[in-house]
Amino acid sequence: MAKKSKTAFVCNECGADYSKWAGQCGACGAWNSLSEVRLGPAHTDSRAANFTAAQSGYAGAAGGASKVQKLSEIDLSELPRIATNASELDRVLGGGLVPGSVVLIGGHPGAGKSTILLQTLCELSRSQPALYITGEESLQQVAMRAKRLGLPADHLQMLSETNVEQICLTAGEVKPRVMVVDSIQVMHMAEVQSAPGSVAQVRESAAYLTRFAKQTGTALILVGHVTKDGSLAGPKVLEHIIDCSIMLEGTHDSRFRTLRAHKNRFGAVNELGVFAMTEQGLKEVSNPSAIFLQRADEIAAGSVVTTIWEGTRPLLVELQALVDDSSLGNPRRVAVGLDQNRLNMLLAVLHRHGGVLVGDQDVFINVVGGVKVMETSADLTLLMAVVSSFRNRPLDRDMMIFGEVGLAGEIRPVPSGQERLREAAKHGFRKAIVPAANRLKTDIEGMEVIPVKTLSEALNALDMS
After folding, report:
1. CB 3.0-4.6 Å disulfide test: which of 160, 225, 251, 259 passes with 233?
2. Does the annotation list 111 as a binding residue?
3. Which residues form the RecA family profile domain (predicted)?
4. Range of 35's domain?
5. Could you give the angle at the alpha carbon of 310 between the alpha carbons of 306 and 312, nearest 5°?
6. Is residue 71 in a domain?
């Protein structure tokens, strides 16, 4: 007798599943987000059989029945990483690809996700077996892009397929060390009765591919789409399944792309890699600070340079402020690249502890180059840029400023202050205003460091009180 098909209700927002429909998801609180998913009668058994078949004949696979081990008996020897031959990508990954790891790379359409992965696999295929699986483009389209970019295409193995079970069967025969799936949103499993890209399909496909990677020691890279707000499309559980989540960011009017790690089990989080889009594809930028410091010959009022910390290295960026008389009853506060709520708070601190009132002024803040400042080290820089624009008094071209500003007007230290100052000195800056706790232990030749404890001291140092 044939078994009845099973039915489940899955939340489109968070991926939680229920046995019956409900108006509100109990996991994330979203209303009217549950959709019905019909599962095949032999869903579990056939999937296990197909996966077992995919593992057969895979030399050196870590498959087989798992066994219980004592914690002290586990081998602690570190797995050798697979270098991608792209130092900026290796930096974001934490030193290279780890065998058996799953990496998810997301980004807006046209950001260059497929380009950077095709470049990487073409180089990797020279030394080890690599497999590129495309579900969105034909093999001819990928070959045309590789030819246009001048990539070595003699050794890279290609597959055009969207069925996950068939992909794993083919990979079990090819035995690649690195495998790319482009993209996870178009993959599907025959037993899951829903359209590709749905919550159930993305979740089941990602779980199936992840299990394959873990048991065979294959480094797996998944390409993911993003939503309108810039977050990864699909269930939230997708980010929990994978080991590393990185985002390729950049605007269409800029040739630069930033690769940032949001989750990494094998390296630093918030590590940043910088690339430039050229006719030959994405090229690494070894000195990102030089890009964001392409300033005009004559520095205008409101322009100040600061040093932010991205992952494991300092990065010099220019912060610009424009303060102008407001014609509105409610003056505007606009921050691009910074938290607008923090801007409002810092302007209140500037009035209370610095004696500078800009409540009747429009204040516009911009971080040059499209960089997003996530830390508090730019607080003092922001306020000095606002005062410089408000007083219409440009600061010295060779001056940089950093420091966190507290609600009491105190200047708090920031991490890695010594490294920030050395990076600034390397790029020709000769004067710096920093928190007193970040003063240099050993002097840097040719650099004057002015330590300050309060906001008033910083304004006096610039003669803008």
Report:
1. 225
2. yes
3. 78-226
4. 6-39
5. 120
6. no
CA pseudo-torsion sign 232, 234, 239, 244: negative
Q: Per the structure, how many domains does the chain have?
A: 3
Is 109 part of any known ligand binding site?
Answer: yes
pTM tops 0.70, yes or no: yes
Q: Was 417 annotated as part of a binding site? A: no
As to burial, measured by CB atoms within 10 angstroms (0-12 exposed, 13-18 middle, 19+ buried), residue 444 is: middle
CA distance 85 to 120: 7
Same domain, 306 and 280: no
Half-sphere exposure of 331 (CA within 13 A, CB side): 16
Rg (CA), the chain: 26
Q: How many CA atoms lie within 13 A of 327 on its CB side?
A: 0
pLDDT in tens, 102-150: 999 998 888 899 999 999 999 999 999 999 999 999 999 999 999 999 9
CA-nearest of 227, 13, 16, 22 to 109 is 227
User: What CATH number should be reported for the domain holding residue 275?
Assistant: 3.40.50.300
Binding residue per annotation — 101? Answer: no
CATH number where 351 lies: 3.30.230.10
Does the annotation list 197 as a binding residue?
A: no
Amino acid type, 383: L
Place of tokens 């240099």: 440
Of 386, 404, 456, 401, the residue nearest 434 (C-alpha): 401
411-443 per-position pLDDT tens digit = 999 999 999 999 999 888 999 999 999 887 788
